[in-house]
C-alpha cells in the first residue's frame, strides 16, 4: 500500500474535486483516479461514490478516512522528530482578516521565521468569506477569521475575543453624551459589507434593518473604515484594540452607548492535511501567541476564554 495513494485519498476527501486535487498535488486527474483505484483494490472496498461531477465518501470511505488520517498524522510527527527545524522547507500559507493582521499576527510570523527558518511563509489578508473559500480549495493551510469551517475533517476553535466600540470623529460625537440605539441609528453609519459576519451582528443590534438602508458607506477593509470614521463620514463599530492609537490621539472618540456592542470571536480553522507537516504546530503556536498578546494589553480589550 503506497504512501502516495493514502495521501491522495485524504486530499481528495478534503477538496472534493479530482481536478483541484490533481492541481494541489502537481499531477493529473488520471493519476488521481489511478491512485484511488489502487487503494480501493488494496482495501477491497469502494471508498468513493461518483454521481456525475460530484462524489461523496461511502460509509467505508468515511471509516477509512478516519484511520488513514491518523496513520499519516503519526507518520508526519515521526518525520518531524527526525528532522531539524532548519531543514524543514515547506510553504505555510496563513490567511487572516485585518483585525488579526494588525494585532498579534506579526508576532506569530516572527516566531515561525525564527523556529522554522527554512519554511516559506505566505500571509494573505482578506475577508472571512474569501479566506474560508481559499482554505477549502487548498490555497490556505490555516485561517484566522470570524466563521468556522463546519465541513467534516476541519478543525476550528475560538482563538481570541475582541471588545467592540462605536467610534467616530470628534466633529460628530459628543464624548460626554450617552447615545441611545435610536440616536445612534439616526447617524450616518460605516459598516462592513452586507452579509459579512460583522454586518450580521450590526443588523440585530438595531433590531430594525431599515436603519441600515440609510448607511453612508460600507467596506470590506478595516483600515478603510477607520479612515472614513476619522474623516467624519460616519460612526463605525470597530474592535477597540484596533483603534487605540486613534483614540489616544483624539482623531477618534468612543461613542458612549446605552446598549453595548457584543464582542467579536475570532476563529482559527485548518485541516490536518498529510504532507503539510507544520499545520498542527502552527495552530498551537498561534493559540499561545494570541493568549500572550491578550495578557499583555489593557484588560477588557481582548481575551482568550479558558476552559475550566
Description of the molecule:
- Helices cover 42% and strands 21% of the residues.
- With 308 residues, it is an alpha/beta fold.
- The chain folds into 3 domains: 3-81, Orthogonal Bundle (Arc Repressor Mutant, subunit A), CATH 1.10.10; 85-159 and 266-294, 3-Layer(aba) Sandwich (D-Maltodextrin-Binding Protein, domain 2), CATH 3.40.190; 164-257, Periplasmic binding protein-like II (D-Maltodextrin-Binding Protein, domain 2, 3-Layer(aba) Sandwich), CATH 3.40.190.10.
- A 6-stranded mixed sheet has the order 4-3-5-14-6-15, sandwiched between helices. The protein has a 5-stranded mixed sheet with strand order 10-9-11-7-12, with helices on both faces.
- The chain is elongated and about 75 Å long.
- The mean pLDDT is 88.
Tally of separate domains? 3
Q: Kindly state the mean pLDDT as a whole number? A: 88
The largest sheet has its strands arranged as 4-3-5-14-6-15
Structural class: alpha/beta
Proportion of beta-strand residues: 15-25%
Number of strands: 15
CATH superfamily of the largest domain, please? Periplasmic binding protein-like II
Number of helices: 12
Query: What best-fitting shape do the alpha-carbon axes yield?
Result: elongated
Taking the alpha carbons of the first and last residues, their distance comes to 44 Å
Query: What is the CATH architecture assignment of the largest domain?
Result: 3-Layer(aba) Sandwich
Amino acid at each position: 500500500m503506497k504512501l502516495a495513494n493514502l495521501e491522495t485519498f485524504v486530499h481528495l476527501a478534503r477538496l472534493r474535486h479530482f481536478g483541484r486535487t490533481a492541481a494541489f498535488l502537481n499531477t493529473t486527474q488520471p493519476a488521481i483516479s489511478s491512485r484511488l483505484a489502487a487503494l480501493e483494490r488494496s482495501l477491497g472496498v469502494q471508498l468513493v461514490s461518483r454521481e456525475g461531477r460530484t462524489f461523496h465518501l461511502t460509509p467505508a470511505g468515511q471509516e477509512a478516512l478516519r484511520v488513514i488520517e491518523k496513520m499519516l498524522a503519526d507518520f508526519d510527527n515521526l518525520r518531524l522528530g527526525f528532522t531539524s527545524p532548519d531543514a524543514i522547507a515547506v510553504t505555510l500559507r496563513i490567511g487572516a482578516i485585518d483585525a488579526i493582521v494588525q494585532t498579534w499576527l506579526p508576532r506569530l510570523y516572527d516566531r515561525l521565521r525564527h523556529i522554522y527558518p527554512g519554511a516559506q511563509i505566505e500571509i494573505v489578508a482578506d475577508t472571512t468569506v474569501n479566506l474560508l473559500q481559499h482554505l477549502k480549495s487548498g490555497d490556505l493551510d490555516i485561517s484566522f477569521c470570524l466563521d468556522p469551517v463546519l465541513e467534516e475533517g476541519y478543525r476550528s476553535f475560538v482563538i481570541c475575543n475582541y471588545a467592540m466600540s462605536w467610534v467616530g470623529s470628534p466633529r460628530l460625537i459628543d464624548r460626554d453624551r450617552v447615545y441611545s440605539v435610536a440616536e445612534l441609528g439616526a447617524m450616518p453609519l460605516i459598516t462592513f459589507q452586507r452579509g459579512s459576519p460583522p454586518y450580521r451582528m450590526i443588523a440585530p443590534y438595531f433590531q430594525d434593518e431599515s436603519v441600515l438602508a440609510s448607511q453612508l458607506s460600507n467596506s470590506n477593509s478595516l483600515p478603510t473604515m477607520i479612515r472614513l470614521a476619522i474623516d467624519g463620514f460616519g460612526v463605525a463599530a470597530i474592535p477597540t484594540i484596533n483603534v487605540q492609537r486613534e483614540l489616544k490621539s483624539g482623531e477618534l472618540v468612543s461613542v458612549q452607548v446605552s446598549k453595548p456592542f457584543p464582542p467579536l470571536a475570532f476563529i482559527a480553522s485548518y485541516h490536518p492535511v498529510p504532507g503539510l507537516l507544520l499545520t498542527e504546530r502552527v495552530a498551537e503556536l498561534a493559540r499561545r501567541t494570541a493568549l500572550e498578546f491578550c495578557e499583555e494589553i489593557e484588560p477588557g480589550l481582548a481575551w482568550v476564554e479558558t476552559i475550566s
